[in-house]
Automatic annotation (TrEMBL):
Organism: Penicillium cinerascens
Covalent link location (Glycyl lysine isopeptide (Lys-Gly) (interchain with G-Cter in SUMO2)): K142
Name of the protein described by the UniProt record: Calcium/calmodulin-dependent protein kinase
Positions of ATP binding: K46, E144, N145, D169
Family the UniProt entry places it in: Belongs to the protein kinase superfamily.
Residues of the full protein shown: 49 to 341 of 498
Taxonomic placement: Eukaryota, Fungi, Dikarya, Ascomycota, Pezizomycotina
Active-site positions on this chain: D140
Length: 293
């Protein structure tokens, strides 16, 4: 299958024929592509333009690939292959044909509680894997970085299963506690308290982001927003948000309690991933679903 005419030809990427552009970033472009050997094998190729980056940005790129290489989880976008040339760095990723969760939110204004629960539980499983198993903080959890495989059929209130949700984009991710170990901090018997506090502090940023995500899914708009960036920053620093009428009127108190547990100013007062997964709203099963676990 020859490469599509209007698609660029990148050096060293001959195995994949680019089909269409599906994403854009500051230094990167993401394409849907197929294997030249078998056109059924579709992937996403993230092309990163090294020639536009300074040294620090190039270092971050190396980190991103390094971290992506270590990850293997159903709710994390899988890295299939990576390579680079002088000018470019490539990541061949498992394709998520449903695209960004962002589009779902903007399409439906807000997701109902059971659909939001389904989505956030899957994101939380990825976060649990990152925090507890890998010792990694994602640091950029937001709708644009949450992709999915749609379940056949439509997405809507009566269908509380959106499909498989996957966390993407490890460009801002960080390894904590040095080399990840099976039990985080397990090999840190000699580490000072502030090192463990540092870990708690950093994983907390993902929990805050989960709170913002859940708020946005249920309410249809983000918790902190102002056209003036200064005003917005002040709202974030004070965790100044409201469950405003009318959007929030029908939302359950349990859901609001969970959001409040995540959007706490002090990271140590924020729920961690274990507490999040144990929260009554998360453990609740919707009426239409048979009880699980
Ligand atoms: P950036 O670091 O530039 O934000 P991302 O890795 O987040 O790059 O990719 C940018 C966008 O490309 C995503 O928001 C998404 O829309 C799309 N994208 C990335 N990876 C995939 C994938 N595996 N499947 C489908 N779309 C993807
Ligand atoms: Mg991104």
């Amino acid at each position: 299958q020859p490469a599509k005419k209007d698609m660029p030809n990148y050096p060293g990427l001959e195995r994949w024929s680019l089909i269409e552009k599906i994403g854009d970033g500051a230094f990167s472009t993401v394409y849907r592509a197929s294997d030249t050997k078998s056109e059924f094998n579709e992937v996403a190729v993230k092309v990163m333009r090294k020639y536009e980056m300074n040294d620090k940005q190039k270092q971050k790129l190396v980190k991103e690939v390094e971290i992506a290489r270590k990850l293997k989880h159903d709710n994390v976008v899988q890295l299939i292959d990576s390579s680079e040339t002088r000018q470019y760095s490539y990541m061949v990723l498992e394709l998520c044909p449903g695209g960004e969760l962002y589009h779902q939110i903007t399409q439906l204004t807000s997701l109902d509680e059971s659909l939001s629960r389904n989505v956030i539980k899957q994101v939380a499983k990825a976060v649990k894997y990152l925090h507890e198993t890998m010792g990694i903080v994602h640091r950029d959890i937001k709708p644009e970085n949450i992709l999915f495989y749609p379940k056949s059929g439509t997405v809507g209130p009566e269908e509380s299963n959106i499909g498989v949700v996957k966390l993407a984009d490890f460009g801002l991710s960080k390894m904590i506690c040095g080399v990840p170990t099976m039990t985080p901090c397990g090999t840190m018997g000699y580490a000072a308290p502030e090192l463990c506090r540092e870990q708690k502090y950093t994983t907390g940023v993902d929990m805050w982001a989960l709170g913002c995500l859940l708020y946005t899914m249920l309410g249809g708009f983000p918790p902190f927003y102002d056209e003036d960036f200064q005003v917005m920053a002040r709202k974030v620093l004070r965790a100044e948000y409201t469950f405003a009428s009318p959007n929030w009127d029908p939302i359950s108190p349990e859901a609001k309690d969970l959001i409040s547990g995540l959007l706490a100013v002090r990271p140590e007062e924020r729920l961690n991933i274990k507490e999040f997964l144990a929260h009554p709203w998360i453990r609740q099963t919707s009426e239409s679903q048979p009880p699980s676990e």
